[in-house]
């Protein structure tokens, strides 16, 4: 038999007359009924006035509910016991307290166990008659001690569960005790351990549909360690609440020990032949891991002392499971340490290329079919194909929680944000660890692996037609159904999560050390650049004055004493003036270059045509003298600092005039093209300034962007300081753009530049 859809979908679609959704939506904490072997009073804690009373108080306490409500509670509890009960929960919803009390009923004293707990402003008192002398805790001590000893000696989860069901059965005497583990928060459950009396069919290994225990029941199991049903055929007792503000809203009995249960559940228990039951919750990190379920085939009342012993045992059992899980995680980490160390040893600052270094080591770490690292918008994948929509969904999910948070699923197809067009051979399970608030993450993927499950009833038909119509199907090995579960991966274990978290912790330490080193280097670079900036500024200003003095002194000597000087001295003085002027020009260029490193850019949308017009007002005369014709396209707007863009165009246009070729059709063309960046992303604008001049040899093309570097002699090609293209490069880089050229001697040079984000 094969089920192509998840079990829960099959269950939801199966019923036609018996509405399972009504069972799932039933407000079981406000049924307004209690089990009839006890009675209940809800008392205003501030005034001691009875707010609500069960309708059987007359039979058990000797005073009718109608008479008790609105009056003082001290008529059925002594002032001393009332004061003691008030000590329960100076704060709301505190733990419960059990008081042994005696009440005069029909001329005699009757013993009760009174359980008290807070429910908002009310103190709820639940009276249970005691038919035998109350056993002292020592009565249960040896049994509980033996049970805890067996728990501590358990080495695996299954061993611990088996020990738990054995000891609970020994303590309580129920005919069947099973440990029942849930498959996820709202999934079906599996019987992982069992103790039964002879003659009853075994349930070990069977799965039970999720609808057997709906979500609201699971919430109550999570909030209450123990739940007892004394008799499934008990008709229950209603509550009398004439003074409630909203009489239509029954009293919240979430924490009541006498609260009756859903009629659906009672019918379910009758169908499997159970007369009484008890459930002990098993919690893991505050969530419901499973239940220890006890079934009896006769009605039975569990006294408070035994309930307390079982509750204590349930707490200890939950803690022991956590210890076993942590030990298994530690052992798994030890076993995977060599592989983990191998991965970490090769990691460098380039995580993408070294963490997923062309092999499956990262995937094999968690027995996964693939892995992915998504960081800074870049995704690196190994091992298997992963849909881009899934990566984007994981990036969104990773942006919410604290870095280091792990999320996993072995049923990806059931996630709300799952895309139905994902490849059939794609991931069915994912484990992801968040790396940053911006959505960076590391993830592992597993393919679907069909698994066979044995069901206690057909999960696609949770109902049967019986003498009283449609009812929940009886569960038991005599009606085992085998179904293949599709669309799920192998489940991620706590050990997998521990290994993933350890890798994250190690990577975080590595990255933080690297970032600290990088920050230190950046600070050193900042100081160095600041010093160089200051030096250039001081040099350009403070050296210019002496140079002017030298130049002026040489000029005065030539003017005043040229007739008395020999030609060699005059020539040397003129050389001195020329060199001083050259040095003055170089210092002006140095000062301008240094200023480009200070101050922010003022970027706006600016028409390139307008900036080109301004640049031609300066460079146009040089182009005309060199007989270079300007060609321009329809130029769009660009996102740039207009003054800096003007400098770029002036330098490139003057360059075209300086290095014009000896030909008749000398041209320089300005246009805008588009390209897709090498790293991916949207297209961006590329401004092109192309001439047909003398060109640049390939082995010297990198030199042209260096400061004070000229490829010709000082007096050749119009002279200059050799700083123009260095200024262009610096302005482009300050915009976050790129600058490059394409040139061939005799065919001209094309300069290309982008202007960073916003330039598209």
Summarize the structure.
With 760 residues, the chain is of the alpha+beta class.
Rg over CA atoms: 43 Å
- CA-to-CA gap between the ends? 58 Å
Order of strands side by side in the largest beta sheet? 2-12-4-3-7-6-5
Number of E strands: 30
What does this structure look like?
With 760 residues, this protein is an alpha+beta fold. Helices cover 38% and strands 23% of the residues. It is built from 19 helices and 30 strands. The strands form seven sheets. Strands 2-12-4-3-7-6-5 form a seven-stranded antiparallel beta sheet. Strand 6 and strand 7 (122-129) form a beta hairpin. Helix 6 packs antiparallel against helix 7, helix 7 (157-172) packs antiparallel against helix 10 (304-345) and helix 15 (544-561) runs antiparallel to helix 16. The protein is elongated and about 150 Å long.
Could you outline the blueprint of secondary structure elements for this entry?
Layout: E1 2-3, H1 7-14, H2 20-25, E2 33-34, E3 39-44, E4 50-54, H3 57-61, H4 65-68, H5 79-86, E5 97-105, E6 108-119, E7 122-129, H6 137-153, H7 157-172, E8 176-182, E9 189-196, E10 207-208, H8 215-223, E11 226-229, E12 237-240, H9 263-271, E13 276-284, E14 287-296, H10 304-345, H11 351-355, H12 361-365, E15 370-375, E16 378-382, H13 388-398, E17 406-409, E18 429-434, E19 441-446, E20 451-455, E21 463-466, E22 469-472, E23 481-485, H14 494-542, H15 544-561, H16 567-595, E24 603-607, H17 608-625, E25 629-632, E26 637-641, H18 642-658, E27 667-675, E28 684-691, H19 724-734, E29 739-744, E30 748-753
Parallel strand pairs: 1-23, 25-27
Antiparallel strand pairs: 2-12, 3-4, 3-7, 4-12, 5-6, 6-7, 8-9, 8-14, 9-10, 11-13, 13-14, 15-16, 15-19, 17-18, 18-19, 20-23, 21-22, 24-26, 27-28, 28-30, 29-30
Helix pairs in contact: 6-7, 6-10, 7-10, 10-14, 14-16, 15-16, 17-18, 18-19
